Amino acid sequence: MRIALGVEYDGASFYGWQHQDGVRTVQDCVEQAISNVADHPVKVTCAGRTDTGVHALNQVIHFDSEVIREDRSWVYGTNANLPQDVAIVWARQVDDEFNARFSAIRRRYRYVIFNRQIRPTFLAKRVCWDYRALDIQLMRQAAEYLTGEHNFNSYRAQACQANNPIRTLYGLNIQKIDDLVIIDVEANAFLQHMIRNIAGVLMTIGAGEKRPVWAKDVLDARDRTAGGVTASPNGLYFIDVKYPETFDLPRLSETRMVW
Question: How confident is the model at residue 255 (pLDDT cuts 50, 70, 90)?
């Protein structure tokens, strides 16, 4: 049978999601924990790989097993074998055609900026710090140039291996709550470092160093060197994934979202 799981993790102490030899990754921790419950080696597929330092509230994965367990047993059994910075939030048996990566319709991320002159302390690994006063109205104007379907070659890492740089941004919303500037991004899929590069451009514009139309100029250049600094991974959260309703998977409640 095929099982889907929702995974939450604090990425501060991980070298990203994907397995890498010799370093601590979320995938390795999760696969080992599930394997202990299943009593056989398990390999998982995720909805979207996250980089070093990036967090997740509802990363979705799937794996196959002939072992029969109740959903509750997959959750609590796996959590008993996981470190404190990773947790399984839910489990569901799904049809064999479900694929955590390829069945996804939309993915949603949140980027959190701590915007004050004094650096953060206990939030240091969970936010991006920008001491410059950010004007979110300027950032919102810039965001309008990026929504829709575009070639995001200028907004992806130079080492990005995706064959196609065309992506569709369904929403790019910015709000300010006290000292926090929060950027919510929803798209069909993302390129490597795409959100962090967008955040870097928006912060430069919010600080008054570039005009809002610069976001479009960078987009039109289709050249990564035309963009700004890649923002820190600390403030980035993989929030949620949307699948066809036929799979009947849990969605992250707005009340459970960070901040």
Answer: low
